[in-house]
């Protein structure tokens, strides 16, 4: 049973763009972490310009949420001058925290923006309470645990550190095969350094086995005809273990995925928001809703789920050996940017109809039954009555990504609602694209 009066943990959600940041906040995030266009470990993400970062921080603050900025590369000498300039820019923008791994970068951050708290990244290999105490003495008040810790070890850390020091731990998302994410494979194979934000995810590639003296003879060690994916981990998912996470003394529940879409972020943020609120209110209520949490969390792309290291060291069941693809149970169509009244003739036949503006993400057609995904946890099925381009020209389908559209639905929608639909049966099996 969760102790009465236990502080509700923060729900910390990733965002790779301004659109996704706003979605995360609207769908329940207490805080969002983002990367600028330099010094972040997701160089391939769209990331934030200075202007977008300013708008995102302002939006989050107006909705009662925080923004943390990542600057967690392992820096070289030639990074330092530009990093100091970057931290001075952040001082002007005033985010609520900076996530940093490298001690030199921490010094630069504190010199150039002393009023912004520094959080220590998981990249710093934080796996024991003496490490936490060391960083506390350096003035840091939040440290992200390494993914290699069990809940029992985290609880022990909690018992041995000051009360005002916060523990942040991952609760959902991709798992790295390397210790605390410090991988050399990408650099070795492609020259793109995972520790500097350019990971090519070689752990998802296909591998064979070769005996040393038989060069070129690849032994048939495979799970299917395509080969074996021996490094390909399942995704972390702790949606069924929120009370255990709270009891371990974790202050911030972190979701991985700054390269994910708005649909992914909305789905995980809304589901974990509901689960955390229920668990803190009544563990019995939380347990009753676990089937709904499971059903919802499967509507975004994922690689099958695992509880990682939290209940002991992973075994062979934590890996996916026969493919490197994602499960996908919903297709993202776009989010509602604006809402206006439907034409009078349509309203006479469909009293709840409305016209929405959106930027199309995937194909849909007039007559399709789609789903309006709302921040409050409800999902409303609606029929697409009409589609028109920016000039009002009617069209029967929306096949062009990023096209600006006016769409009439037979049910009410609100700004920031997301639109999704079930994938066609012939495409529902899997997707190689996490976006």
Task: Count the domains.
Answer: 2
Q: What gap, in angstroms, lies between the N and C termini?
A: 38 Å
Mean pLDDT: 85
Return the CATH topology of the largest domain: TIM Barrel
Q: Tally the beta strands.
A: 20
Q: Determine the number of helices (DSSP H or I, runs of at least 4 residues).
A: 12
Class from helix and strand fractions: alpha/beta
* Coarse shape: globular
The CATH superfamily name of the largest domain is Aldolase class I
Structural write-up:
The structure is a single chain. It contains twelve helices and 20 strands. It is an alpha/beta fold and 435 residues long. The chain folds into two domains: 246 residues, Aldolase class I (TIM Barrel); 97 residues, Elongation Factor Tu (Ef-tu), domain 3, CATH 2.40.30.10. Helix 1 runs parallel beside helix 9. It is globular and about 70 Å long.
Keywords for this entry:
single chain, 435 residues, alpha/beta, TIM Barrel, Elongation Factor Tu (Ef-tu), domain 3, 2 domains, eight-stranded antiparallel β-sheet, 12 helices, 27% helix, disordered C terminus
